[in-house]
Amino acid sequence: MLDMAILGILHEAPMHGYELRKQLALKIGAMRAAISYGSLYPTLRRLQASGWITEAGESLPDDELVPPLTSRRGRVVYKITAEGKERFEELLAQTGPESYDDPGFGVHFAFFARTDTEIRLRILEGRRRKVEERREGLRDVLARAAERVDAYTLELQRHGLDAAEREVRWLEELIANERSGRPPAQRAYQPGDPGTETSAAQPGHEDDPPGQTPRRQ
Amino acid sequence: MLDMAILGILHEAPMHGYELRKQLALKIGAMRAAISYGSLYPTLRRLQASGWITEAGESLPDDELVPPLTSRRGRVVYKITAEGKERFEELLAQTGPESYDDPGFGVHFAFFARTDTEIRLRILEGRRRKVEERREGLRDVLARAAERVDAYTLELQRHGLDAAEREVRWLEELIANERSGRPPAQRAYQPGDPGTETSAAQPGHEDDPPGQTPRRQ
DNA sequence: CACTCGATGTATCGGGCCGATACATCTGTA
DNA sequence: TACAGATGTATCGGCCCGATACATCGAGTG
What we know:
- Two copies of one chain form a homodimer.
- By secondary structure, chain A is mostly helical.
- Chain A is built from seven helices and three strands; from the N terminus they run αβααββαααα.
- Chain A has two domains: 1-57 and 75-115, Winged helix-like DNA-binding domain superfamily/Winged helix DNA-binding domain (Arc Repressor Mutant, subunit A); 116-184.
- In chain A, 53% of the residues lie in helices and 4% in strands.
């Protein structure tokens, strides 16, 4: 799942690990907690070994022509490869059960702007089905369990049920929107990204957050 | 975290793995998905090695006096030990950051009926603080990011923000209830468990779900 | 000017937990 | 009788996390 998220972020611009993690937090931080370095760096290594990303060796500040005086190790900038882009497309189109659970759905949803409408619908419906099942389970338990469990456990289940019902309604709305042709939400819509084309690879566009220092090349 | 959940369940009655998993799902299934056997059995092993639980070797059906004809391996019933009960009390009283994140909070909350009011309040407030931080983060991003991210990412963040706000309100309510002396929710309250005593070790009481076959002893 | 502090930055290690898988038993039911 | 589905125990590879270590850099502060 991390693979998809990282490839998706690097698809928009080359980046080093630290910055990558921050962008990741912005993108999928609404669903799952920020990913840890203990996951990030091994995953980068794996992606590199698979040939999906490469090190784009950062050009050190110009005055550093005398290379490693104090074992200088600068930032490592990663860059997606052509195979990586293919792999990302493949992951985007994937609609298994792992696309419906919490972390998987969050990542998929975060990249919905690059996903085909058809796939979007399939994922939204799969997620809905999953949350509905959870909701039904909680309803059963609550209906049957009032005399068996303590009030706190009951309250926890009630809260869980509420969250599930709410998410189903949210998904219904999204699905309806999707079917009616106007993909995202109507409130606060933003022009400038007119559509669903999946291969927009202009490198280094305006997405650079302020305070960063992207190098030339 | 699993340790606490398992000890808590076994505190109420001895049980074998399969059944344990089902009870676990009932107890904490509202927060986290059902725990897998790939976690359960190794954890049971670990708990046993630590001396917190023991195998209570199931008394096979009476007619089975000829033991292992076909390499018969019956169900393994686990039972909490005195040290295990101590350990459980210790875990109940623990209020670190790990009690505030999603899985940890869920487990703690599920056993609030066995937790001191003081600890309950500390955990609820810690959780609130954590969710508030998350909420603030999402608000900042949403306020600043409308021009930077696509509509889907925006929608995901809006949904996350909504969930966070809702949980904070829920926690406020619980905290207010807690402070005002009447611990759990007022709706659907159930007598029969009158209070907050932390050492109620009557083994095998009425908590046995129907359809199960608890053995004598 | 020296010092410190917090942000930036890369990386490893042990361990918890999961999904997939395997295999055996028991209980209906066609 | 045979088959399906629930019950039941168990392992294995692998993802991911928290803790930890270490190094650099800019901004204050005394």
